[in-house]
Amino acid sequence: MKKSLPFILVLLLLFVSACSNKSNGNEAKTGDSDHPSGTITVWGWDVAAETLKLSVEKFKKQYPDVEVKVEDFSSGDLYEKLTVGMAARGSGLPDVVLMEDERIPGYIHQFPDGFTKLDKLGYDKFKDEFNPAKIASVQDKEGNLIAAPWDIGPAGVFYRTDYFEKANVDPESIKTWDDYIEAGKKIKDATGAKLLPIDIANYDGVFHMMLQQQGISYFDKEGNILLDSDEAIRAMEVIKSFHENDLILNNSGWDGIVTATVNGSVATVPYGVWYAGTIMDQAPDLKGKWDVFYLPGFSEGGTRYANVGGSSLLIPSYSKNQSAAYAFVEFFTTDEETQLLGFEKFGLFPSLNKTYESPILNENSEYFNNSPIFKKFADIVEQVPEITLDENYARGSSMMSNTQAAILLENKKVEPALKDAKDQLKNEIKE
Amino acid sequence: MRSSKISSKIWIYVLLLVGVVISIAPFYWMIVGSTLKSGEIFHIPPKILPGDHLAENFKSFNDSLGIVKIFWNSLFIAVVFTVLSTLICSMAGYAFAKFRFRGRNLIFFVILCSLMIPYQVTLIPLFEMMVSFNWLNTYQAIILPSLASPFAIYLMRQNMKAVPDSLIEASRVDGAGELRIFFTVILPVVRPALAAVSIFLFMSQWNSLIWPLITLNSKEMFTLPVALSSLIGMARIDYGQVMLGTALSTIPIMIIFLLMQKHFISGILGGSVKE
User: Fold this and answer.
1) By the 8 A CB rule, do B222 and B70 touch?
2) With bands split at pLDDT 50, 70 and 90, how would you rate the model's confidence at A11?
3) What average pLDDT does chain A have?
4) B261: distance to nearest CA of chain A, Å?
5) Structural domains in chain A, sorted by start
6) Separation CA A200–CA A41 (nearest Å)
7) Which residues of B touch A1 (CB under 8 A)?
8) Share of chain A above pLDDT 70, in %
9) pLDDT grade, residue A10 (50/70/90)?
10) Is B129 on the interface with A (CB under 8 A)?
């Protein structure tokens, strides 16, 4: 005992001293809307947070009195912290927060007064500088701008040029999903590779792209469920015929898709533009062997465009320094150079229209078979159909994954399965 | 007769061997993975032998997060927490086991009941409390709230009940004060239980994610689990880094557990049998 007491005391002392040198007081100093000042905190993730950090330098030239602190979490962690902070009436929240577009309606629904309406602060004058589909995804139901649009994910089909050559398939000839399936059969015979990866029980992204091509999502503007619509049936029939022809690599999750991309077990990956960055990162050896074509349509001449992912910046209404937060958000999302910085460094595809004129976005990519893949994506941005992201989006998505599994793996019929899914989702939402 | 005995033994060993391989393989893969480049991890067939990317992974992990600081954070928090919490819980357990006071059983019952409250329920009020203390992003926000662990108190109480009253009475007769009795008589007797409780507390703090995640904001304050979780990007994951980080956070726990597992098991069983 005599020996251990001093030891414990020392530890206690150490503890107290470690605790006391820390004060985390928010500076109360703020400016007015003409001269914002003070310190703001910004939450982001991954390469987006890096971009936010890199933008601060130029921002400070315009607003020398504002200090910006960017804090970086993984997106899942960020949502967790944001939800807790919102539930705790704004405790410990940052002044600006990054959010995926599909999450925005859910947060607005759960915390209706949680975020500042940006049109009040003057953001409405930028409305026309972005494509309408993106603007639609950052508005609440009354049409107020809740978030400032940043990146988007126009979708295309990434494909292995060598596999296509070996099977003697011309990607240009793939115009409809039926063509795509025929091509898939040929490629499989020639190379043994499956056509595309889908985590059947957990990922309905391909299905949702097909819905968006046809101009709908899981819900319409009034919140009606569209899971048993003709569009949904058509889309699910296509996915079913992928499966019947044994063209789907049923792998698990994000890691599964990356695995398949790297080890060559699939010939194509339909995904958003940002997947280009992942391919380059994880499969440097496959340089020159990837390229992109647009999503096949449901009929010849049908829409071939959709969007996967994308994120925007929001200002929690609890932020004590609204003027500085807004100054940063406005600068960051509307400054062409800053937007191109994120694209050039990390492949974050901007939604600001004027960036599409820039040379970096139009040049040929050495990795992607020397084709101008980003120009291909930029060209379709305007034509991506506008859809409603409902607050129950996540529920719709998981319901569709389950239904997809029931149809493909348990041989349920498409139409009754989708009808059941609709009824079940309706019940879930009512509760 | 003899040969059948041997062959059945062989079968048992083969079965055990399969079990060993199954339980060791993920750890082995984790270590191999931490020496590979991100893309290499997905190669088919998988690479069984370690690669040459360990130094690079270490460097990029260190560049993005600062290994030393994060290790120190985790270690400091876990050690201080374990020492304080073990002390508090064993004192509480002693009081519940050996002192008679009004409401003793009721208070003990309430403490046990608090085991039934899911963590998520207390999360938000506790978080608000930390914010109003201005304790966000500090060590004490992680260490203090969970110091009194109901499970540890329960375990200590059960173990201390097994200590004969006569031992305490004899010490009192000899003129020892209460604190002295506790530290010099009681604690040495329940050493296995102490070991078990401290391993349990250390592991729970070392691995804890949600609470540190919510209270810590800056990279310099991150603990290992929070740092690992922050490595998972949206579209880009450097799997080599993740594997290395996981290996780094697992190895200390494995060492501590292997060193102390004897105490751990006997401590858990300690309260079950009364001599």
Assistant:
1) yes
2) low
3) 90
4) 23
5) 38-153+309-362 (3.40.190.10), 154-308+376-430 (3.40.190.10)
6) 39
7) 180, 183-184, 187
8) 93
9) low
10) no
**What pLDDT was estimated at residue B196?**
87
Of A52-56, A173-177, B237-241, minimum mean pLDDT range: B237-241
Residue A21 has pLDDT above 80, yes or no: no
Residue with tokens 């992942």: A278
**Six-digit token pair at A144?**
């107020």
**B46, B250 in Cβ contact below 8 A?**
no
Considering Cα of A34, then A40, then A46, then A51, what sign does the dihedral take?
A: positive
Q: Does the beta-carbon distance from A74 to B231 stay under 8 Å?
A: yes
**For chain A, give me the number of helices (H) and strands (E)?**
17, 9
Mutate to test the interface with B, among A258, A278, A289, A308 (most CBs of B within 10 A): A258
Residues of chain A contacting B213 with CB distance shorter than 8 Å? 73, 77, 80-81
Domain boundaries, chain B: 53-270
For B53-270, CATH gives: 1.10.3720.10
Q: Which residues in A lie closer than 8 A to residue B135 (C-beta atoms)? A: 24
- Helix H, strand E, coil C: the string for B70-114 is HHHHHHHHHHHHHHHHHHHHHHHHHHHHHCCCCCHHHHHHHHHHH
The DSSP-derived string for A346-372 is: H---B-BGGGGGSHHHHSPBTTTTTB-
Most B CBs within 10 A among A12, A40, A74, A273, hence the mutation to make, goes to A74
Cβ-nearest to A72 among B43, B124, B230: B230
Note whether ipTM > 0.85 here.
no
Q: Least CB-CB distance to A88: which of B127, B137, B239?
A: B127
State the pLDDT at residue A20: 44
Per-residue confidence (pLDDT) for residue A354, from 0 to 100:
94
3-class SS letters over chain B: CHHHHHHHHHHHHHHHHHHHHHHHHHHHHHHHHCCCCCHHHHCCCCCCCCCCCHHHHHHHHHHHHCHHHHHHHHHHHHHHHHHHHHHHHHHHHHHHHHCCCCCHHHHHHHHHHHHHCCHHHHHHHHHHHHHHCCCCCCHHHHHCCCCCCHHHHHHHHHHHHCCCHHHHHHHHHCCCCHHHHHHHHHHHHCHHHHHHHHHHHHHHHHHCCHHHHHHCCCHHHCCHHHHHHHCCCCCCCCHHHHHHHHHHHHHHHHHHHHHHHHHHHHHHHHCCCCC
Confidence band of A27 (pLDDT split at 50, 70, 90): very low
